[in-house]
Design a protein that fits this description.
The complex is a heterodimer.
Chain A (H helix, E strand, L loop, with lengths): L3 E2 L5 E2 L9 E5 L4 H10 L4 E6 L24 H6 L4 E4 L5 H13 L2 E4 L5 H4 L4 H7 L4 E6 L14 H6 L25 H24 L3 E6 H8 L1 H8 L13 E5 L2 E5 L4 H10 L14 H6 L1 H12 L4 H10 L4 E3 L3 H5 L2 H5 L3 E6 L3 E6 L3 E3 L2 E2 L12 H9 L3 H9 L4
Parallel strand pairs in A: 2-15, 3-4, 3-6, 4-5, 6-7, 7-8
Antiparallel strand pairs in A: 1-12, 9-10, 10-11, 12-13
Helix pairs in contact in A: 1-7, 7-8
Chain B lengths: L14 E5 L4 H11 L3 E6 L6 H4 E2 L3 E2 L8 H6 L4 E4 L5 H12 L3 E4 L5 H4 L4 H5 L6 E6 L14 H8 L18 H24 L3 E6 H7 L2 H10 L16 E5 L6 E5 L3 H11 L12 H6 L1 H12 L4 H11 L3 E3 L10 H6 L2 E6 L3 E6 L4 E2 L17 H8 L4 H9 L5
Parallel strand pairs in B: 1-2, 1-6, 2-5, 6-7, 7-8
Antiparallel strand pairs in B: 3-4, 9-10, 10-11, 12-13
The chains are: A alpha/beta, B alpha/beta.
Chain lengths: 410, 408
């Protein structure tokens, strides 16, 4: 079933960018499922393999409607698995592994997040798979990669996020007591790994389509994050040691109704801020003459900008500065983002109906392709497509499936 | 990092005209270059890339356009062509370059390219199946399409800043890393369009909203709002249901270990590793109790971590089966034994900066040679190569273009 955009400005992708790309996803929780979702939402046929009976552990993670846990109603699962089909398959059984190989023979891509060595222990050694399926792109997502001393470390998102030196500079008011660095909100590092894996996977699939040669793509979540933090890391690990961060001019300001981010970096952006503030006399001083001088006199200038910000609301500052050409953005709550006119106009949030969880408003895709946006569908129920996929691809009849179910294979 | 057999990257044969600047766009095209695309950065002395000159963190740089370490970390493997696009002849050259390229990427404000006569529609007259990526702050449609932004404003508008940080502290707009997430999403969209073009022969104009990229990376927070009516907020290092879940101080200054317990099995392992009878209390018997009572639980864990150097704490906890990891700060990553063993950082010689450590590609490909092979280009370093070898201009023609300051 197609999702209905909240308004009609964003027509659904017709055919889809990735129409014709066949993907098997054996992923759990956030990273690998996000990789699968990114491909599926653009039209790839992503079949998600789930353990019989239990499925992806994300099905048991909050949020749930009314806070009542139910395996078909997890908001985490429903968001991360849009546009996919679900089949159940146990790789613990010999029959399940045989079916897995038959499915691989039909697929362009396998995305999985098994622990290092796990596939080999199941008798599905990646080297053997590469020989058996030379066109296959096989993407593996692991916390620390498949070599090195941390290869077998146990982790959750918190451990992964802090395993890369993210920003030790912050926009927090100066002089606060030293605390442990806070992780990014939600599951950001897991999403990072999924996004990074999706790019590498798709590039390899494009290469395979052209040359007929598949390959293994390995993604270490830590390295995906280090690549994203590469500029900050580059400053830290090369001489000279960067001076302590004192904050930028402007930056995070307190407005009447919350925080607002103001970044008057270049001269014309600074002049926009000056006009928005009504060109007070202090802005004409020598301390404000150029970027270097303003940086040097930040301690004297910043309180004046802060005092101005306190007299206005976030939106007054946002629109006022943007109209003068100065980048700014209010710090918005999740509820405020949901109501943001700009995102609504672009049809970014979509209402998706689900037979068990009801209708909810989902963020869709952050890109339009020649004006076309999300054309995906709701997340699947556990094993919802067993008959369809096993029937179409492998020719199993409904009674075959009864036997496989009884044997614990699907 | 490349462990392949020397084959070119999967995007070999794809040519990208790179008109992006600052951080987000350049990192996106850099990723395409790591994957084997030929990326030609079009820039100019008349309009220098922001990251050759300054940063939000470090302010203005005094190193000159060829001495920016930030630029070097965002533009590896690329070629540089300088064109002053205010001149008609430069715009003609750009159109000729587009006619023999596959992708054009740009992140100017919506409307700027159109005013230069370089709109998608105009350029498709020269390259009918062109793929163009237009990356902007909030998208190039909608009432705020002309608004500008940087990484911290995208973080603020998207919702991620408001859910990052401690509940009793201010929101945290992360840092420039937000831009690199935007760049990664842009690169993904470009490769998706290349896939489509291969199947159908059609080009695409991709309209990417930097702010929406970040909102999409916290989608379940919007599900929580829709499903429960609650507005998710900041929770520091804590988790919705897991506990204990935090960063604990080790011996020495500013040394932290992250510990996250997600199951009874992991809790049992933690108890065994710490051996503190305080953990046996009824108040911590089940996951709900541990979550409810984490305020009193955390100091018991801290008592143990404080007595140990960070490395020992991680080793002992992992040996017992506890998800635990070093919290890397500042430069400690460069000497991390795991990172060193995997060779993630490489020394790269830059003609102005000298030898520097740079991060590699975020993937390991088994067959293709994917990774950082060359430092970022000097301004105009490849003018002759691009104009001569690719566009077929004679040396005299190139000299005249330089004299006329078209190539500048």
């Amino acid at each position: 079933m197609a999702a209905a955009p909240r308004d009609t400005k964003r027509a659904p992708v017709s055919g889809g960018m990735l129409d014709g790309l066949s993907v098997l996803e054996f992923g759990r929780m956030v990273a690998a499922p996000y990789c699968g979702k990114l491909l599926a939402d653009l039209g790839a046929d992503v079949v998600k393999l789930e353990a019989p009976g239990t499925g992806d552990p994300a099905r048991r993670r909050s949020p749930f409607p009314g806070d009542h846990p139910h395996p078909e109603r997890s908001g985490l699962f429903l968001y991360l698995n849009t546009s996919k089909r679900s089949i159940t398959l146990s790789l613990q059984t010999e029959g399940g592994r045989a079916i897995f190989r038959r499915l691989l023979a039909e697929a362009d891509v396998l995305v999985e997040d098994c622990s290092p060595g796990e596939l080999a222990r199941l008798g599905l050694d990646p080297g053997d798979l590469a020989k058996q399926f030379p066109r296959l792109v096989h993407t593996s997502i692991t916390p620390f990669g498949e070599s090195g001393p941390y290869r077998d470390f146990r982790t959750h998102h918190l451990n992964v996020y802090h395993s890369s030196p993210h920003t030790t500079f912050s926009y927090a008011p100066e002089g606060e007591a030293k605390r442990a660095p806070a992780k990014a909100g939600r599951y950001l590092a897991e999403y990072d790994a999924g996004l990074t894996a999706a790019l590498g996977t798709l590039a390899a699939a494009l290469g395979s389509a052209a040359t007929g040669r598949g390959q293994r793509v390995q993604v270490s979540k830590q390295e995906a994050l280090m690549c994203i933090e590469r500029v900050d890391i580059g400053r830290q690990i090369n001489p000279p040691k960067p001076p302590p961060w004192r904050g930028s001019l402007g930056g995070l300001l307190r407005a009447k109704d919350g925080y607002v981010m103001v970044t008057p970096v270049q001269d014309h952006q600074w002049l926009g801020l000056v006009r928005a503030m009504g060109s007070p006399e202090w802005t004409q001083s020598d301390a404000c003459r150029d970027e270097m001088a303003r940086q040097e006199h930040r301690e004297e200038l910043q309180p004046r900008i802060q005092a101005w910000a306190e007299t206005l609301t976030r939106d007054e500052i946002y629109h006022g500065l943007q109209q003068e050409g100065t980048p700014a953005g209010p710090v918005r709550t999740v509820a405020e983002v949901q109501e943001w006119e700009q995102a609504r106009e672009r049809g970014y949030f979509v209402e998706i109906e689900h037979p068990e969880a009801g209708t909810h408003s989902y963020p869709s895709v952050p890109y339009l392709f020649s004006g076309k946006g999300f054309g995906g569908s709701r997340a699947p129920l556990l094993g919802e497509h067993n008959e369809q996929v096993y029937g179409e691809r492998l020719g199993y009849s409904p009674s075959d499936l009864t036997f496989l179910t009884a044997a614990g294979v699907i | 990092m490349a462990q392949g057999n020397g084959a070119q990257g999967p995007l070999a044969g794809v040519r990208v005209v790179d008109m992006t600047w600052a951080w987000a766009g350049p990192h996106g095209t850099q990723l395409l270059a790591l994957l084997g695309a030929e990326v030609i950065k079009v820039e100019s002395h008349a309009r220098l890339d922001h990251s050759r000159m300054r940063s939000l963190m470090g302010g203005a740089m005094k190193t000159g356009p060829d001495g920016s370490p930030i630029f070097n970390d965002l533009n590896a493997n690329k070629l540089s062509l300088t064109l002053d696009l205010r001149k008609d002849a430069a715009r003609d050259l750009l159109r000729r370059l587009v006619s023999v390229s596959d992708v054009l990427a740009q992140n100017m404000r919506p409307g700027v390219l159109e005013r230069l006569g370089l709109s998608y529609e105009e350029l498709t007259r020269f390259k009918s199946d062109l793929i163009m990526l237009s990356s902007s702050a909030v998208g190039s449609t909608g009432p705020e399409r002309l608004y500008a932004g940087y990484a911290p404003t995208f973080a603020s508008l998207s919702g991620i800043a408001d859910v990052t940080g401690y509940p009793d502290g201010p929101p945290q707009p992360l840092s420039g890393s937000v831009d690199l997430r935007v760049g990664t999403a842009g690169a993904f969209a470009v490769v998706a369009a290349l896939y489509r073009r291969r199947q159908t022969g059609e080009g695409q104009h991709i309209d990417l909203s930097s702010t929406e990229v970040m909102t999409s990376m916290m989608g379940e927070a919007f599900m929580e709002l829709s499903m429960t009516g609650r507005v998710p907020g900041r929770n520091g290092n804590r988790h919705d249901v897991m506990a204990p879940h935090g960063c604990y101080p080790c011996a020495g200054e500013d040394q932290w270990v992250s510990i996250a317990i997600g199951s009874d099995e992991e809790w049992t392992a933690l108890k065994a590793a710490l051996g503190d009878p305080g953990l046996e209390a009824e108040a911590y018997a089940g996951p709900a109790e541990r979550w409810q009572n984490q305020e009193s639980l955390d100091p018991i864990i801290e008592r143990w971590t404080r007595q140990r150097p960070l490395g020992d704490a991680v080793d002992q906890l992992q040996a017992a089966g506890v998800p635990a990891m070093r919290v890397h700060l500042e430069d400690s990553i460069a000497s991390d034994p795991h990172v060193v063993a995997r060779g993630y950082f490489q020394e790269l010689e830059h003609p102005v900066l000298g030898r520097r450590l740079v991060g590699g590609a975020p993937w390991t490909f088994s067959e293709d040679d994917v990774g950082v092979h060359r430092p970022a280009p000097l301004l105009g370093q490849h003018n002759e190569a691009v104009l001569g070898d690719i566009l077929g201009l004679a040396p005299e023609e190139i000299e005249r273009l330089v004299a006329d300051e078209v190539v500048r």
